[in-house]
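B., you asked whether I could sanity-check this one before it goes into the benchmark set. Here's the sequence:
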Amino acid sequence: MTKEIVATGKTVDDAVLAGAAALGKPVDKVKFEVLEEGRKGILGIGACDAKVRVYIENTPANIAVDFLETLLKNMDIQAQVNIENEDEEGALISVNGENLGLLIGRHGDVLDAVQYLATLAANKDRSTFYRITIDIENYREKRAETLRALARRMSEKVLKYKRSFALEPMKAYERRIIHTECQNIAGVTTYSIGDGADRKIVIAPEGKNKK
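And here's what the prediction gave me:
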C-alpha cells in the first residue's frame, strides 16, 4: 500500500482531500506537508494549484491496519477498518461490515488468530512490544457480556445446590471475565484447573476446598 503521495488542488484543502482519497483514507487519518500554496492569479494569469505531500505515518497501529486491509482485500471481504484508540503502549482496531462471522470463528478463535498475526506485523523490527487488540462487529464486548451472564447463572446454581460447577475450557482473558464477575457475588469463589487449551474455571461455594 502506498504510504505517501503528492497531490494538487485549487486549494490546500482540495489537494489534501485528493491525496487522502488516492491513499484510500479519510482526511482525518492522514497527515500532510504543504509544498506549494495555490495562487489565484490575476484574471487567471499566474494562477497555480496548491501542492501537498499527503502521507500515512508508519506507526505500529497503521501497520496493523494495513495488514488487516490487505487480508480483507485478499478474502474479497468489504469492511471498514478503523483505529478506535491509540497510545504508546497499544491500539484498539475495529472492523465493521457485513457477514464477518468467518473472521470471528467459534468463540472468537479466528479473531484471535487474526489479532495475533496483526500483532506480529505491528511489532516487526521493534525492540519493545506494542499491543494490538482487534474487535470485529463489537464481538468482544458481546462475548464479555455473555460470559458475565454465564458467571451469574452458574453462581446461582452453586448457591442453590451447594456444589461446585466446572465451565468449559476458556482463553485466559475469558477466564478473567468470569473471575471478575464472580468476585461481586457473595457466597461463591473461583479457581482454575487444567493446563493449556484445557484450562477451565470452577465456580465453587465460598470456603470449599479445591479438589
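One thing to flag: Residues 139-161 form the longest helix (23 residues). Otherwise nothing jumped out at me.
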